[in-house]
Amino acid sequence: MIDTIIDLTEPKKQLYDMKLEDLERWVTELGQPKFRAKQIFNWIYKKRATSIDDMTDLPASFREELKQKAVLATMKEVTRQVSKDGTIKILLELHDKSTVETVLMPHNYGNSVCVSSQVGCRMGCTFCASTLGGLIRNLTAGEIVEQTMFFQRMLDDQGDRVSSIVLMGSGEPLENYDAAMKFIDMISAAETLNIGTRHITVSTSGLVPAIRRLADEKRQITLAISLHSPFDDLRSSMMPVNRAWNIAQLIDACRYYWDQTGRRLTFEYALIGGVNDDLKHAKALADLLGDLPCHVNLIPVNYVPERNYQRTPKDQIRAFQDELNQLGINATVRREKGHDISAACGQLRAEQGRI
Q1: Any catalytic annotation for residue 217?
Q2: How far, rounded to the nearest angstrom, does the alpha carbon of residue 142 sit from its chain's CA centroid?
Q3: 246 and 322, same structural domain?
């Protein structure tokens, strides 16, 4: 008979995964005064500590206890790509050997970081590399925070800061709703990076119940809807989520979001040569959006070898944009960042064989 060994060791706390009030509660449970939490927060978010040993104003005995019961930075860089335009894409390995991508995009108005919310994705969008290996797991709020802090430490060397966040990396943020919202609460707090919620964008493929839940919470974030077609049959073939909630249900939820929050929506529209880029699509898109306060972001599709989609020619992109504008829909073409590297979501992870 073989004895079964059961590990009763309590898992370590991830310090990045705790709000200030969570940390205050925990340190008092450890018999420490409440102010120790603010000291730890100061080390993590203001002094950018990567090790508990760095926290030199904590008693040595408490630092040792923390090392036994908590962890701070756990992600390791696997590889990075640097674009000629300054965009930096990094593949990070998590504690369980899973990997996620995160991207720094410098703009003339500040530095934007694109974070992943899941390891992989199960949405199945045919133009996206993130879905190639399916969904592995959700990320914790702390794992999303750590992606942001990875680039903030890099920017510290330049005397600069992360000024905006987009949850547009691998995964569907609204499927990992609680962790995504906790991340937003944490990263926007004055004690952390103090990034205003109006500088945070959440992208969704169209999870209607979650959009309505988000509307009811009246958060002042920017909501970006991946639309990509005004026709149900075409959108369903590109985005399986449309089979669960069709375009009419999605637009109804978007109108509810506007009514509840007063926040203009963004609609992402990836232009794919010969698929969804005809002027009939532009006219139907304008009819669909009507008087809904919104902005259409036209995106020349990134080439993904496994998908074999072709980019719409530049003159046709301009014609599509002009048609929308003439029909009263504000539309711009997304300025391309990192086009000379593995820019598509999930592409670097796939190239490294980490699917």
Answers
A1: no
A2: 13
A3: yes
pLDDT higher than threshold 70 for residue 7: no
Instruction: Give residue for tokens 């990094």.
Output: 90
Whether residue 1 is contained in a domain is answered as: no
For residue 289, the domain's CATH number is: 3.20.20.70
> Measured in Å, how far apart are the chain's first and last C-alpha atoms?
39
Q: What is the CA radius of gyration of the chain?
A: 22
Token pair, residue 63, equals 């630092």
Q: Is residue 337 located within the same domain as residue 243?
A: yes
The yes-or-no verdict on residue 346 having pLDDT over 80 is no
Dihedral of alpha carbons 170, 173, 179, 180, sign: positive
Per DSSP bridges, beta strands 70-71 and 13-14 are parallel
The predicted model scores a pTM of 0.91
Domain match, 203 and 234 both: yes
Domain end, chosen from 24, 52, 71, is at 71
Q: What is the mean pLDDT of the chain?
A: 92
pLDDT tens-digit series, residues 36-91: 999 999 999 999 999 999 999 999 999 999 999 999 989 999 999 999 999 999 99
Q: Which residues contact 190 (CB under 8 A, 6 or more apart)?
A: none
Q: Comparing C-alpha atoms, which of 76, 81, 174 is closest to residue 121?
A: 174
Residue 1: per-residue pLDDT:
45
Residue type, 126: T
CA pair distance 254, 223, nearest whole angstrom: 9
Cα separations in angstroms, 157 against 151, 153, 197: 10, 7, 25
Indicate if 207 and 128 belong to the same structural domain: yes
Structure tokens at 155: 């920017």
Classify residue 2: in a domain, yes or no: no
Q: Is 345 a catalytic residue?
A: yes
Number of domains composing the chain: 2
How many residues are recorded in the chain?
A: 355
Q: Is residue 5 part of a domain?
A: no
Q: Are 284 and 230 in contact (CB under 8 A)?
A: yes
25 & 165 share domain = no
Paired with 331 in beta bridges are: 296
Domain that includes residue 43, residue range: 13-71
Q: Which of 24, 64, 345, 351 is catalytic?
A: 345
Q: Which of 24, 101, 175, 323 is catalytic?
A: 101
The predicted structure's pLDDT at residue 267: 98
Domain closes at, from 71, 99, 116: 71
